[in-house]
Amino acid sequence: MNALLRSINDNHAAPLAVRGLSHGYEDGQVLSHVDLAIEAGSVLGLIGRNGAGKSTLIRAMLGLLQPHAGECTVFGEAALKLSDRSKARIAYVPQQPDALAWLSARQMLDYVGRFYPTWDAAYAKTTLERWLISPNKLLGKLSPGERQRVDLIRALASRPELLVLDEPAAALDPVARRDLLREIALRAGEAGTTVLFSTHIVSDLERVASDIAFLHDGKLLLHCGVDETKERFARLWLPAAMSAAAPAPVFGRHRHEDGSLSLVVERDANGRWPEACALPGARIDALGLEDLFVEIAG
Amino acid sequence: MTTQGMLIAPWYAMRRTTRWIVLAISVLLAAGASAFAIFGLRGAEHLYWAPVTGMLVATGVFILTLFALSPCLLLAIDGRKMRLPRLEREASCAVLLYGVLLVIVPGALIGSLGGYTLNVMAALATAVTAGLAMALLPRVFSFFIWLLPAAFNMLQPVFHLPRPAEPGFPLLAGSIALVFALIALVCWRRVARAEQPFGGMGAPMMMQFGAATRGDWGSWGGAGMDPSTLIRRNPAWLQPRVELRQSGPAHPVTSLRIGLGGVFAPLTRGGRAMQLSIVLGTSLFFVLQLGVQAAQHHAEHFNESLVHTGLVGMLLWGIGFGGSMLALLPIAQLAQRWTKQNAELPLLALMPGLGDAQDVKRRLLCASLLPPLAALAALIVLAWILATLLHASTAGTYALVLTLCGAMAFVSAFVLSVIGGRPLGRWPSVGLCLLGYVLFSVGVFVPMMSSGDQIHSYLVWFLGAWAVLLALLAWLSLRGWRGLAQRPHPFLANSL
């Protein structure tokens, strides 16, 4: 009965959720009242500028740091007190992974693999060969890119239900990056793996993410579907004469030298653009993800 | 090139912590040399005041050159890489300027007060050039420079080499200084122009001064150094050979030891044999050198002589020193592991099969405390057996056992403070280590003290100081224990 109840609970709980999360270091606040929940089976791309708080958010979500305020849960359990059962369902690759330098790639995969009931040793072996990584070389002697790939193999070989990757493509060459993105898409599509990954590379996000979250100055400014962003946001250009009628901007607002104004606008709950869009001379331009990112964070 | 840039270059070249340590050591050595010259030799009228003071100052000058002057090479390398020829020239000229000043200023001062100017300057020149050569030679060779004073003592009676106060000494010391200077010059040019000056065994010892360290424990024997840097630096035969057979959820403590690495990791038989042979080889060399020296001086009454006491004292000091290092290594390594957020901590925190939070804490304590404590316990047994076999004095044996027990307390307290998330700051840690080292060093002299009221009063102070140290360590342990109890799990990184 307990197992049944737990199973029902697991199925309903979001793989990752945070509520009212705030955290800071000696030099200031890094996260302010962040609320975020990731739906099972989705691929969420977390995007933000350097120092926006992406890594801190990810680490707090996984219980790798004790936040100053807020609540983080993984599969419904408090992130700081995860059971072995939940841990076995998670895989996390930190930014520039640097663990177990004293073991070779083969030893590390053998060591870690013993702890995961769903460990796919054959996958680990073949991927190591496919990615041309010497299995007997100590991890400490590998290049940062090779190190990142070994850690990605470690994460993927455990067949996780929740895969969390912090800047996974940062040290990868274009071929390895393409391989990784394909693997993420495959895992999400076929095995229903929930993926959270942070990145600066907007094209990666467009390729695999189903959802997107913009983090800026420790605040979550936007969380929605990737396709939805293209439908929901646009850049409105108003000539100088009409600029007084500009609506309150959602994000960016730039006045040009000729007095004209451009700003990002959002559809309302009924799917309508603000009234100013219908003014004579006003122009609505579609916004790509990268443009939207620049408008938000620029 | 500016004079100001040249004068300030060594200050910029040193790491921030090294600056103050070097400054403190220099002041202490200068004060010690002056105190010895004034009170020990009763002033400049003493026949050998100048050569003895000169040798003492030369030791300080050697340390100063090694740690404060040689890092200028790092600045020169940076200058070369950043295409700033002025910086490179200033760093090179600073070494030359300060090197000459370190010979001329103390040499002239001591010479004007007590004579032997040439002898003192020759000794100082040897110290400066030896310090530079040691810092700039590949690490495998630089180790042998430490042995040169002992080698001089061994060879002096055989080849009738001149002593520091004898007329032939300037020529001998000057020649040695010239050889060292040439070595230093060649090494400087080689390293400054190398494409990859920081890697491999060919890299000079000085490069370690610029290597990344974490956890406020510097690079104690490479312990506080980043493991990847350490592994890239060492040759294949020195790499750890970790035993993985007893890992997995059925063996959580061993698995945690593998996860912690370094001195905690279980090794294969081959790996253990290699580690043991390095330790025994070094110890054997040390014992042989002492034995040869003792036999040369007092072959006919080796067993009864003072040399025996000296030999035993130094042997036991060696064990005590080994024990201190055995305590510092795990502390430094653990402090390093608990500052990195992208290494072992997240891996271990999210690894299933290690048990719930309470189990993990208990098992982590076993994994981090048992290996160093077992090694120190073995050292206590070894020290006891050796002391019995060599008929060491009871007071000396007890002092050594006390030192090793103190090392155990050090490990326990600092390990608890690190994994409990309440690590001690840099300077309090340095203070505690210094107090421990002073007590350990004083303990070596306990058997040499005369009996009666004098030793009694010394012992009261000695044991009182130990009690204070142990009380501080107990407080640190308790603080760490409480911190660990409050942590939801132990794999949370400590802020730097």
Sum up the structure in keywords.
heterodimer; A: about 300 residues; alpha/beta; Rossmann fold; 6-stranded mixed β-sheet; 10 helices; about 25% strand; elongated; B: about 500 residues
Description:
With 298 residues, chain A is an alpha/beta fold. Chain A has helices at residues 2-12, 54-61, 84-87, 105-113, 121-130, 144-157, 174-191, 202-208, 226-232, 289-297, and strands at residues 16-25, 28-38, 43-47, 69-74, 77-78, 90-93, 162-166, 194-199, 211-216, 219-225, 233-238, 253-255, 261-266, 283-286. In chain A, the strands form three sheets. A six-stranded mixed sheet of chain A has the order 6-7-8-3-9-10, sandwiched between helices. In chain A, strands 2-1-4-5 form a four-stranded antiparallel sheet, with helices on one face. In chain A, a hairpin with a 2-residue loop joins strand 1 (16-25) and strand 2 (28-38). In chain A, helix 4 packs antiparallel against helix 5 (121-130), helix 4 packs parallel to helix 6 and helix 5 (121-130) packs antiparallel against helix 6 (144-157). The radius of gyration of chain A is 22 Å and the shape is elongated. The mean pLDDT of chain A is 86. In chain B, 72% of the residues lie in helices and 0% in strands. Chain B has 18 helices and no strands. The mean pLDDT of chain B is 80. The A-B interface holds A 25-26, 55, 59, 62-66, 78, 80-85, 87-88, 90-92, 94-103, 107, 110-112, 114-116, 138-141 and B 226-232, 239-240, 242, 244, 247-249, 255, 258-259, 261-262, 265, 340-347, 349-357, 487-489, 491-493, 495.
